[in-house]
Design a protein that fits this description.
The structure is a single chain. Helices cover 48% and strands 14% of the residues. With 299 residues, the chain is α/β, with parallel strands linked by helices. It has two domains: 1-28 and 273-299, no CATH class; 49-270, TIM Barrel. It is built from twelve helices and eight strands. An eight-stranded parallel β-barrel has the order 1-2-3-4-5-6-7-8, surrounded by seven helices. It has helices at 2-10, 17-24, 33-45, 62-81, 101-118, 132-142, 160-167, 192-208, 220-232, 253-259, 274-283, 289-297, and strands at residues 49-54, 86-90, 122-124, 149-154, 173-177, 212-216, 240-245, 264-270. The protein is globular, with a radius of gyration of 19 Å.
């Protein structure tokens, strides 16, 4: 089946949306806020906390950026009224950064006022390298006035460890992820072991420097390595949390983390832009190809 999988991966975008939708429901909470609230409540009931993301990036107009910003502001109201254990993650290009920085700044300020109003939290996702420094700059501009915000650093970028050293200290809150964008070797590690090592060193640097680390990975050996270090150095459990994507199978590893009293947060995406996100998950799981094929030929 491997050659069939390869063919399907290269043709994913021409597949009908209905063939992907049953698979997508594993990884996406739904298209509407109402569907998403039900999913978050179920995830909370299992002992997990959440972060919500309205799927999409790189809006095409200031009006579109304003509309997405309004949706995020309203979402904080919903989280409060539904008593969800949940915060929000955003991409700055989704609120206008790729159009004009002023648009993004104005929209970010609106969202941050909602964060403060509800005493919630905002995570600013890191996108591809053209936006790395702009994202860090905006974080630095606002974090002193809005301390309930955090950033994301990517372990495959060679600059990230130095970024931690620049930003680190009490109140510094960052999600560490490996990184998914295709970046050149001049700025990014390509070797899996090198990325794992950099991830480990970044996490240690954050925690050792009195920052808070959101350890976002599905790499179980890497989780084991970090957990061993946490336990051997007796890091307090309020200095870190583990994060995973909603729906990604982890073979009981998450439950074992919960059993030790650690916070585990699931990244729960939703919205009309579910198709592209689902394709990325599908590319990472070639064994699902047979399922997609079967779903195609049932019609």
């Amino acid at each position: 089946m491997s050659w069939i999988n390869s063919i399907i991966v290269s043709m994913l975008r021409i597949l009908p949306r209905w063939s992907i939708h049953p698979f997508a429901k594993t990884y996406v909470a739904g298209e509407s806020v109402e569907e998403t609230v039900l999913v978050v409540k179920k995830v909370n009931d299992l002992g997990f906390t959440c972060t919500l993301d309205i799927l999409g990036e790189h809006v095409q107009s200031a009006t579109e950026a304003e509309n997405i910003t309004r949706e995020y502001c309203d979402l904080y109201d919903v989280i409060a009224s539904e008593n969800l254990d949940c915060n929000i993650s955003i991409k700055l290009t989704h609120i206008g950064l790729s159009l004009d920085e002023t648009i993004a700044v104005n929209n970010l300020e609106r969202i941050l006022k909602q964060v403060k109003k509800h005493n919630n939290f905002l995570r600013i996702d890191m996108e591809n390298s053209p936006y790395t420094q702009d994202t860090i700059n905006l974080y630095q501009d606002y974090v002193s006035d809005y301390p309930n915000m955090g950033i994301v650093l990517q372990a495959y970028l060679k600059r990230s460890l130095e970024d931690v050293r620049t930003l680190n200290g009490p109140g510094f809150n960052t999600r560490v992820c490996k990184g998914i964008y295709d970046e050149p070797e001049t700025i990014a590690f390509k070797d899996r072991a090198a990325i794992q090592d950099n991830y480990f060193h970044i996490t240690k640097e954050i925690i050792s420097g009195n920052g808070f680390a959101a350890i976002a990975t599905h790499d179980i050996p890497l989780i084991d390595r970090i957990e061993d270090w946490i336990e051997s150095t007796q890091v307090p459990s309020d200095r870190f949390e583990f994060q995973v994507l909603y729906g990604v199978p982890m073979g009981g590893r998450l439950e074992r983390l919960l059993d030790k009293g650690y916070t585990v947060r699931q990244y729960v995406p939703f919205g009309p832009e579910w198709f592209d996100y689902s394709l990325r998950r599908l590319k990472e799981n070639p064994k699902i190809m047979s399922y997609v094929l079967g779903n195609l030929f049932k019609r």
